[in-house]
Each structure stands twice: as structure tokens, then as C-alpha cells.
Amino acid sequence: MVGSAARELLLVIAVAVVGVLLASAVAFAPWPVNPGRPAPSGLVDLHGPAPTGRLGSASG
């Protein structure tokens, strides 16, 4: 009984590790580039706020 429980727990851990490895490979793999089109976005794309041209408080 203890052997089957340990084997099942090992199987669950192995499947979880494989899932994390596959997700990491997909997330950090290079994106394909299509000729004549802009480069695709990366994993994280940060942009600052657009300037408003007004001075004063943000509440209006």
C-alpha cells in the first residue's frame, strides 16, 4: 500500500515538472518572424503613459 502511494506521488510530481518545463520552453522560445511584417511582441512589453501636455493635478 505504501509503495503504490509513493509511486502515484512520484508520477504526479513528474507530470508537474514536465508541465513546467514545457510551459517555460513555450514562454521563452523565440517568436517566429514573418517577412514583410513587424516583429511580434515579446513576453512582456512595457509602455509608459502618453504625455498629456497639461500641467496640474490628474484629477482634473
Sheet having the most strands = none
Number of helices: 1
Helix content: 40-55%
Proportion in β-strands: under 5%
What Rg, in angstroms, do the CA atoms define?
24 Å
Order of helices and strands: H
- Distance N to C terminus: 69 Å
Shape: elongated
Based on secondary structure, the structural category is mainly alpha
Low-pLDDT residue spans: none
Would you kindly provide a written description of the structure presented here, covering whatever features stand out?
- The protein has 60 residues and is mainly alpha-helical.
- The chain has a domain of 28 residues.
- It has one helix and no strands.
- The longest helix is centred in the N-terminal third of the chain and has 27 residues.
- It is elongated.
- It starts with a helix and ends in a 32-residue tail after the last helix.
- The model has no long low-confidence stretch (mean pLDDT 78).
Topology:
Elements: H1 2-28
Region (Disordered): 40-60
Short summary:
Residues 40-60 are annotated as: Disordered. This protein is an all-alpha fold.
List keywords for this structure.
60 residues; mainly alpha; 1 helix; 0% strand
